[in-house]
Model the fold of this input.
Amino acid sequence: MNLFLQAQPSFWTAASGSSDLFLKMAIGLALAFVLMFVIMKAPAQLRRPIVFVFTFISGLFYVLLYFWPAPVAYEKGTLPRDFVETVGVTLKDGVGIVVPITNVLTAFLLGLGVYSVLRIHLRKIFSTQKDWAFSAVLVVSMFVMIAFGYADWHQRLGPGASALDLPANWGVVNYGRDLLFDGMLQTMDAGMFSIIAFYILSAAYRAFRARSVEATILLITALIVMLSLMGAVTYFTDVKIMGDPKPQDVSYSFTLTAISGWIRDTFQTSSLRGIDFGVGIGALAMGLRLWLNLERQGGNA
Amino acid sequence: MSDLSSWRGEQYLDSAWLGPLFTVILVVFILVNIKRAGKGKDLYIRRINGLNAIDEAVGRATEMGRPVLMVPGLSDNVNAVVVQALNIFSYVARIAARFSNPILICCYNAAIYTVGQEVIRDVYNQEGLGDKYDPDSVRFISDRQFAFAAGVSGLILRERAAATFLMGDFYAESLIFAETANSIGAIQVASSTQITQTPFFIAACDYVLIGDEFYAASAYLTRQPVLVGSLVGQDWSKILIASTITLGVLMNSFQMGLFSHGTITEERKDAAYKPTTDPTTKQPGPRPISLEDTFMSNLFNPQTEKDLKIQREPDPNAPKKDAGEGGGA
Done:
C-alpha cells in the first residue's frame, strides 16, 4: 500500500474540510507536543544522539532519492513491477510530503521571529529609549499591514473573489492593501535597490586604484568591460575608429567588444566555474559532515 | 516495450551513472581523509588572511568600545551555508565574549534566528559567561530582502559597529551592507557563496573569503582533525575534477582533429546511432565533427531513448476518467 496515495481511502486520509480531518490534525498536534515535551525532558547526554537520529533520517530520505533506481518511464495509474520500483515510487511520492515540512517549520518559526521584533521594539517604546518613535512606527506598520493583508486575503477566498480582479470592485480593505503593499512597500524596495547604483560609484572610486600589480590588472579589465557595455563608447571605438570590421576580419579581434568578450569568455567564466566547483564540493563536504554528525558546533577557539 | 531491469533506474540510463559515481568518489575521498586526520596525521592548510583578521577585528572593536555585527546571509532555510556561517560566528562570539564585547547577529529568516540564538547561547555557557548573554544580541530583522537591508544598515549606523562579518548567501544588498559599514570606518570580513556578489565584496571590504575558503574557515580556526581531513578530501576532489577537465580537453582536441576538423558518418541522437546528413548536399553523407559528437561530450550529456516504454500492470485502484470525457460532436 502506498501511504502517500491520497486518492486511496485509508486510515491516513480524510476528506478535505471534514471533522474527521480536523480531529486527526488535532491528535497529530497533541502527539507532537507530547513528543516535544519528552525530548525536552531527556537527559543532556541524550541530546546529541536524538539530534543525530532526526538529522540522519531526514538526510537519508534525500540520499535514497538520489541513489535509489527511479522507475523508468513510470506512468500514473500503473503498478510498480517489483520491490525496487515500489520503493522508487514511494520515494518520489514522498517528495511532495517531505518538502512542505520545511515550509510548515518556517511558518511556526515565523511566530518566534515576530516575537523577537515585538520584544525589542515594545521595550524601546515603553522605556522611551533613544529613537523609540521609529520603533512605534515599525510596530504600528506591522499590525496595520497584518490587518489589511489578512482581510484582503480572506475576501479573496470568499464567493466574490473573482470580482476583486477588477479594481472597480475593490473596497476599503482592498485599496488599503494595495496602497500599503504596491504603493509603499514595493516602492521602498525599489528605492533601496536604486541606492546600489550610487554605492557602486563610491566602491569603484575607492577600489579601482593602481596600488599594486593585481589592482592595476583589476582596474584595466574593469575599465574595458564597463566601457564595452556603453553603446556610445563602442560605436566610437569599433565603428568610427576601427571601421566596423566583420567577425571574420582579423581586425575584429582588436575591437572593444571582442576584447571584452574574450576577457569574459576566458578569464572570467573559467574563474567563476573554478570557484563554483570549490563551493559545490565544500557544500557537499559540509552536508556530509552534518548528516553523519561529524560537525561539532560552538567553534572552540 | 522494453524489458529493462528495475535496477537500471532513470538516473543510471545511458551515461547518467557518471554523476552518482562521481559523487560517491568525492564522498569516499572526504571520508578517507577524515579517517587519516583522525589518526593524528599533521595536514597543512595555507594561510587565509581574512580568517587571521578575525582576532584583529574583534580586538579593535573592544578597544573602541563598539559592537561587532554579523550577518549570516539571506538564506530562506537553515542550510549548509548558514550552518557554516554560524560556525564562524560562534568563534567570533567566543572571542567577543571573553573581552565582554557586545555582538549583534542580524537574521533574515526566523529559522536562522532560532538556531543562531541556541548556538550563541551555547558559546556563552561554554565560556562560563551565561549571565552575560543578551538574547537581543541575536535578532530577527525581516524576511524581505530590502527591508532587511534597510534594517541592518540602520543598525550599523546607529550602533556604530566597529567590525562587521558578512558571510553566507548575499544578493543585491551586499553592497549596501559593505558601503554602509565602510562609511563609519568599520573593519569588514566578508564572504558570499553567490559568485556574482564576490566582486562587490572585494571592492568594498577589507578581507574577503573567496569560494571554498568560506567552507575551510572552521577547519582553519579550530584545527579539528575531522574538519582538516574533510578539507584535504575536498582538495583531492578538486584535483580529480581538474584532471578530468584536462583529460577532456586533450581527448576532444585529438578526436576533433588538431589542425582541421575530421568528419563523421554516424551521429548519436536519442541514445541511438543514426547516419549523418551532408550539410551541403542535404543527403546522407559525412559531415564535420562537432563538439557534441565527441566521446567526452556524450559521456557528460546522457541521452534518453525516444519513446521508451516499460510494460506494467494497470493499477485497479487508480481513479478512472469520467465516461463523459471525449464525447462525440
